[in-house]
Design goal:
Number of helices of chain A: 4
Structural class of chain A: alpha+beta
Oligomer: homohexamer
Organism (chains A, B, C, D, E, F): Aegilops tauschii subsp. strangulata (Goatgrass)
Subcellular location (chains A, B, C, D, E, F): Secreted, Extracellular space, Apoplast
GO cellular component, one term (chains A, B, C, D, E, F): apoplast
Radius of gyration of chain A: 19 Å
Largest interface: A-E, 56 and 56 residues
Pfam families (chains A, B, C, D, E, F): Cupin_1 (PF00190)
Number of strands of chain A: 12
Shape of chain A: globular
Family (chains A, B, C, D, E, F): Belongs to the germin family.
CATH topology of the largest domain in chain A: Jelly Rolls
CATH class of the largest domain in chain A: Mainly Beta
Chain lengths: ~180, ~180, ~180, ~180, ~180, ~180
């Protein structure tokens, strides 16, 4: 049976060696995963035992005025619980509607984002805000729209056409995503 | 495209009528779902928009000395975050090992239970404890082992054989699960 | 293509080396998997070729008066065919109904148990009974409720609270699950 | 919760109206599903409660000399248990190997066929044979190769090219699949 | 069996009424689905019979200088075949790498984009280009990054923070996405 | 995160070593995969990056009069686009209907075949025909009905019974599938 488990990729650790800590994550196990550029920090909850269970979690801290800029998870839906403070949370529906679904969330409120849709967090209050985000995959992935557009190697003229603007505007924006 | 969505069962509400509240759950939307017998309450987070997203959530409150008795979810794995207080959380592995994996969790700690395994919560401290439980299905189901054995219509002799004891002991235990 | 097969975990044997016996299980391949405590034996059908096909099988033999105590499979639904004799087969629905669905099955009858629900077998007749159980996973897992509660390391007071009884009763039952 | 169940298509019967018989199939519920042309009969086990559980079953009876001709299930793997008699059971691997994997099975033997591969049963003994076939889908489908080729409306010249023979041979074979 | 098919959502048309045209799409069935703003047109191949088969297709036409701006499909991977002309095709990997994977494709070339990643098409040649895009879902969804950011109701200050620029720049870009 | 990816079998190449060519397939990467016996060639599009994305592609060339004989894919649905010429494309539904669904396809037309059903291509025109076939699995498999029946080691009498004919006819057909 153990052999079958390994064959099916459900585990790559000797089952006999599995311990309680493989299913546990304390504050000391939180690992910073996202840049501080936007004034937030996202700390991923590392739980080896969740590896094939279709779940992943993160704690997100937002200072007053901080944002978790528009992003999406290529392989997961997300649900977030507010632990402290207030935050403006929203997502935008698919083309062609681009309809905004949003709420100002307070402690104890929960908001959900369907699989793959673009969403954002904005702490437009005066107190720090903390959220607990749940993702429906052990490997959800993360794409920040601004970084995907400006931090990478997309051609300037492609970006100008995309934003219906000129290269000059594109270069000005891009400069901030490529610190010299 | 909308038609396809409905055909695939991904939604049963007119997409044009979907609003932000369909993805939101405030304290006022929490619904009591489990009996108070054990001194705990489990409040399910009701989010219509999560219906086909493979996620479901609950807030669990445990008074000092209260337990969420050994139970499992037939169709989901679970991960729980401690919001307040401390709690002794554990699960037991499959037959024949029946190995206990457990931790005393404090605020901010997270513990995970693999798909379908029996787990429990025990507030053996002096302060109330609150947890936020995440389930990997929009319809996880819940089976309390004691209720499944004693609250239903299982034959007494089957139960006696199961517990390696006598009918008298079974009847004494069962009496408390069948208030007259 | 063979490489892709291995990458996708659909096989871990050199396809060129696969033989008919990899899809075959004779009586000599049946392997005892469950303790004899309850007077039954469950023999798992070992078929390497089924490893990624979402199926697993077992032959269950019950002496007169024997039971396969209340149990469930964390990762599978089950369907059983009676090969010989008669058996009382049932399962209990989820909380809060705990409704018993059961039948006395005779040779040729088939009974099904939905994913993860607690079920049991009881040969309350005078002749031996044999069943062929089909599980909808190559790695269904098995949890015996009584063992999960009493054979493991659950705290006595947790068990007493769970069974709405006292530690003395718990200790008396537990003693039989922990032979000295 | 019930609403969610219905939304997800996990049930289309009022849960409150579900009874034990919805999970049971006795001999009287077996329904003939395949023509008698080849001297066999396949009786499908009808269990409403299995509808979304990824399983389906059939009892197959083969008179001496009878065959269940080469066929496959577009949406399922199959495993068969011999209940009575002996049978020659085999499947052929994919193109380009077309390798035969087969066994002469006796009472109690089990043989498995991977998802979608062509397989057959041949009772080349002198006693009736009975098998219990398990399929890994509630809607496995069935394609008999000879019927798919000759009973339908495939053009004669396409068939001749396919069999590397002439139209005369095709017409002779086809005549038996189209009784006037 | 037909009933089961409907129950499982595999079809919502009376099987007896299904005809060849339900599996066919000719040029006359192509339906314009995307705005002409960027000089391209994407014509979705409408095939009712594909509804539950996990596939969807589109023909994309790009005039010289036209782009299919950076976008992604929340529920699908994509593979595209060049039918005519040449096109610069690329996708950007997840945060934090934002690595560009791209190729200039010519007639007969194929390029693939993993599930949910941002990709784009750019006809930087002098002849029209046509592609056949395959999506791994019957309901892939489409999100154009620029529209998701500027065409919807995101707050200006959130956008300014996101793009590391000022509201003035945001308003100038946004003006083109909100024709008066 | 990369480790998790490998554990889940989503990749077996060092992510840091992945390059654009891993998502690209030019004409030079097409690999012949099917015998020329029937006058067609099927060239599989080899794209490493598609390995776990549930897609696979092939280019099929048919000379005038050539056929891609009746076959099926055990693990995939198929959709084909006509790139050049015309072709008669059809599939046959399951037992007992064996109903033919077919169309004469011209350049730009698309036809779909549900998961696992038998289908064929026939160029009954005077010009060469080329198609682009899309399969809904990275490992669809291929079974040619005629080869499965005649090229393998099926017993002659089983084949005779299957085709409702005599061994002489079977031997005559089989001779062409077993060149001496």
């Amino acid at each position: 049976m153990y052999y079958a488990v390994r064959v099916n990729g459900l585990s790559c650790k000797d089952p006999a060696a599995v311990v309680s800590d493989d299913f546990f994550a304390g504050a000391d196990k939180l690992r910073d995963e996202v840049s501080e550029r936007y004034g937030f920090s996202a700390l991923t909850v590392q739980i080896p035992g969740l590896n094939t269970q279709g779940q992943r979690y993160a704690r997100v801290d937002l200072a007053p005025g901080a944002i978790f800029p528009p992003h999406y998870h290529p392989r997961a839906a997300e649900t977030a619980l507010v632990l402290e403070g207030s935050v403006y949370f929203g997502f935008v529906s698919s083309y062609p509607d681009n309809k905004l679904f949003s709420k100002v969330l307070h402690k104890g409120d929960v908001f959900a984002v369907p699989q793959g849709l673009m969403h954002f967090l904005y702490n437009n209050g005066t107190a720090p805000a903390t959220l607990y985000a749940s993702l429906s995959s052990q490997n959800p992935g993360l794409v920040l729209l601004a970084d995907a557009l400006f931090a990478g190697a997309l051609p300037d003229d492609l970006l100008a056409k995309t934003l219906l603007t000129d290269k000059h505007t594109v270069d000005n924006i891009r400069a901030n995503f490529r610190p010299s």
